Structures are given as C-alpha cells and as structure tokens.
C-alpha cells in the first residue's frame, strides 16, 4: 500500500472513530471534571494525541479503550490542577451544599445534572470512572473491564465500594 | 438503590456535544491532521494517483508551509503564516479560557525567542523591535482578558495563580536573556534596551496579579487547599530537580560566576520548599501552596534561562543588567 493510500485509510479510521465515540468520551470527561469548555479542550487533545499515535504507524485494535485511556491520563492531569472541592471542603468554606448555580456554571447546560454531579463528587477517581461508565454510559461490567484493561472482578469491587459510599446519600 | 441510581444518572446520557460543537471540533481535528501528516509520505508518489493528488497536494502543501513557517523570524517570507495562520489557528482551537491563557504565554515566549535569535545575528532593527513590542502588548491584553474570564467563571484562585506565576517565570527568564545581548552588541543596544523595558513592565503587572492571588490563597483553608498544597509540593520538588539537572548538563553555557549564581537561586528554591514543608506540617496549607509555587517559579525561570542559552549558544554572564548599568556609567 502506498503512503497516500495509507494516509487516507488512517484518516478515515480516525474520523470514523471520532463520529462514533466523541459524545461518549466528551460525556465521560465532563462528568469527571465538571467543566464543559475544558472538557471540549480535553476531548480535542484526546483525539489529536490519538492522531499523532496513528501517524507514527501504530495500530489501535480497540479504539474505544484507547480513547478512554488517553482521555483518562489527561483527566488525571486536569484533576490534579483543579482539585475540585469535596462537599466537606465546600461546607468548611461556608458554601451551602444545595447551591444549584454551582452546578449550572460547572456544566453550563442544565440543572438536570445536579444530583449526578453531587454524587460523583463524593467519589475517588477510580470509582467515579466506573460509575460513569456503568450508570451513564450503561456499559456492562464485562465491557468496562475490556475498556479499562482490568479484570471484571476489579470493576465489580470498585462499583460495590462506590455504591457503599453513596448509599447514605441517596 | 439500583433503580434510584439509574434514575439519577440516566439523565446524564442526554448530556452531549451540541451538533455544531461536534462539527467544530471535527473541523479542528481535520486541520490538525492536515498539519501533522503521516511521517513517511513521499511527495513523488502523489503524482501517480491523480484522483487524490489535488486534495492531498493542497493539504500537504498547506501543511508543509505551515510547518516551515514555525521557524520563521520577523522579516522572513513565511512569518505572516506563522502569526496569522499557525498561532491564530491554535488560539482558535482552544475552548477554555485557561487553554487560551496558556497559549498567550506561549505566544509571548515565541516573540521573545524571535527577538533573541535576531539579536544573536545582529538583525534586531528598530522596525522589527517595534513590531515585536506591539504584538507582545496585544498578546498581553488578551492574556489579561482570558485571566479575568477564568476568575469570573471558575473562581479557582489556584489556577489563576499558576497561570500568572508561569507567565512571570517566562517573562523574567527572557528579560535576563535579553540583558545578556545588551552588553554583547552595541548596534542594537537601544532596541534591546527598549524591549527589556517593555518586558519589565509586563513582569511588574503579572507579578502584581500573582501577589493578589497569593494573598487570597495563603489564607484559605479546607480539604481542597490541603490536597492542592500536597500536589504542589511534589511538582515543585520535581521542577527544581529538573532545573538542577539541566543547569549541570549545560554548565558550558555559563560563566563561572553566573553558574554559581544560578545554582544559588535553585538553592533558594529548595529553601522555599523546606519552608513550605514546615508550614504545611503546621496545617497552614494555603501558605504552603504559595511557597511551593514560588519555588516552582524560580526553578522554571532557571530552566528557561538554561534552555534558551543552550539554544542560542549564549554564554550567560554574572548578571546582564548589572553589567549594562556599569557600561552606562562609563
């Protein structure tokens, strides 16, 4: 296969992957960092890094898993920078927990996600990840394990721990 | 409970990109892909596939010009592409104010590096200096607007402090590099002096903005600032270690006195980290955060100075500003 054929194929593969997975990855990023504009930047970075990986001649067998992995690394860097306030931290700072405008500003769309954000903020990153994939993306434990590259058992353990933590809040 | 969770989180599935947002990001990615084509593309092969040649040639030529323009200096043919295409496209590709502010810092660094490269060749004319100064001023104004937007929308003092601190480190490092040129070549002395003056004004403004944030953060409390301080402690330590390593690897680019002075500054950065460790153990996390940030700024400054000196093949002398003042007295 000539170089230009290869490039056309890579570009098609890349853009098909974008059309198929962009919404899901964006949603995942947004519910992890609670910032719509920043989520768009990170989504863009996720795909541009994926492109850079592809043009080095490397293959991606599982695009969805790859994209989640790249996005997760970027999210971790972002979370370290931002260190979102936990509800404890908010309470200590004198912010009323039931302040609805905080969530509107964060996700810039609607008040509908207030409860989701409020619950997710209680969780550590590993638990947040699996909860978003299970309850928002509705992936099975098997699918989550495949995407994250971990055992189904580990996914189940994390889900159970997350549920235990959230039990008292619901 | 499962049903309740499904009810709460189920709404989240409706959260997605708007169609125009999705299309806009896609177009950004296509632009990015065109500018970063497959590495082993052979131009000659294009002519054997006429069906695709036209679009590919256009894409690759645009990509090539854009890539070549990255090294252009003021006065060169491709410089307008660097400014009006590459840089504006990159700023345009960012959605959040933090990303835009980060890019403003990068632009300032690019302008100052251009000035230094020209100064090294004796090519910093009055016209070019004026053009660079004007772009720096314009960029700084955009930086202030973006920082203001971050303050208003996110209300996250730590991010604003970090951005201001990063910019201050970049500007100070380049102020120092330009000072080296002010004693090496008298033909451009006035242009370099003017540019140092302009940079100095920006340093003061950013430093003032940074101090305001430091005051706010130093007094903050809570889990959030504790976590941020612990993270900043780790980052500051690795930044200082990296700066020490880089300095040691590039000793040849420093006169002895300058080398020891740079080493002393990194020693001061380490002292700041120790001070930060101490106040952190007393539970003063806000204050610890600002001390670690200060250590980082010193280390970043040293790192930028060292890498610029290596790139420009300069030999850093004691303190360029002091030497310049001595010459003026003569």
Which tags fit this structure?
heterodimer; A: 170 residues; mainly alpha; Rna Polymerase Sigma Factor, Chain: A; Arc Repressor Mutant, subunit A; 3 domains; 75% helix; elongated; B: 330 residues; 2 domains; disordered C terminus; RNA_pol_sigma-70_dom (chain A); RNA_pol_sigma70_r2 (chain A); DNA binding (chain A); RNA_pol_sigma_r2 (chain A)
For the secondary structure, the number of strands of chain B is 0
Rounded to an integer, what's the Rg of chain A over CA atoms? Answer: 18 Å
Q: Which whole number gives the mean pLDDT of chain A?
A: 81
Please state the second-level CATH architecture of the largest domain in chain A.
Orthogonal Bundle
Give Rg of chain B in angstroms: 24 Å
Mean pLDDT of chain B: 81
Total domain modules of chain A: 3
Number of H/I helices of chain B? 12
Strand content of chain A: under 5%
**Unreliable stretches covering 5 or more consecutive residues of chain B:** 40-60, 320-330
Instruction: Describe the main β-sheet of chain A briefly.
Output: none
* Anisotropy-based shape of chain A: elongated
Largest sheet, strands/sense/barrel of chain B:
none
Global structural class of chain A: mainly alpha
Query: What kind of oligomer do you see?
Result: heterodimer
Order of helices and strands of chain A: HHHHHHHHH
Distance between the termini of chain B: 83 Å
Please write the CATH class name of the largest domain in chain A.
Mainly Alpha
Weakly predicted, low-confidence segments of chain A: 84-105
Domain DUF5667 (chain B): 72-164
Organism (chain B): Candidatus Brennerbacteria bacterium RIFOXYD1_FULL_41_16
Protein name (chain B): DUF5667 domain-containing protein
Family (chain A): Belongs to the sigma-70 factor family. ECF subfamily.
Question: Can you describe this structure?
Answer:
The complex is a heterodimer of chains A (170) and B (330). In chain A, helix 1 packs antiparallel against helix 2 (36-54). Chain A is mostly helical and 170 residues long. The model of chain A is unreliable at 84-105 (pLDDT under 50). Chain A has three domains: 1-83, Rna Polymerase Sigma Factor, Chain: A, CATH 1.10.1740; 85-111, no CATH class; 121-170, Winged helix-like DNA-binding domain superfamily/Winged helix DNA-binding domain (Arc Repressor Mutant, subunit A, Orthogonal Bundle), CATH 1.10.10. Chain A has helices at 3-33, 36-54, 63-82, 87-92, 100-107, 114-120, 125-136, 141-148, 152-167. With 330 residues, chain B is mainly α. Chain B has two domains: 82-218; 221-330. Helices cover 80% and strands 0% of the residues of chain B. In chain B, helix 4 (79-92) runs antiparallel to helix 5. The radius of gyration of chain B is 24 Å and the shape is globular. The chains are: A mainly alpha (170), B mainly alpha (330). At the A-B interface, helix 1, helix 2, helix 3, helix 4 and helix 6 of A face helix 1, helix 2, helix 5, helix 7 and helix 9 of B.
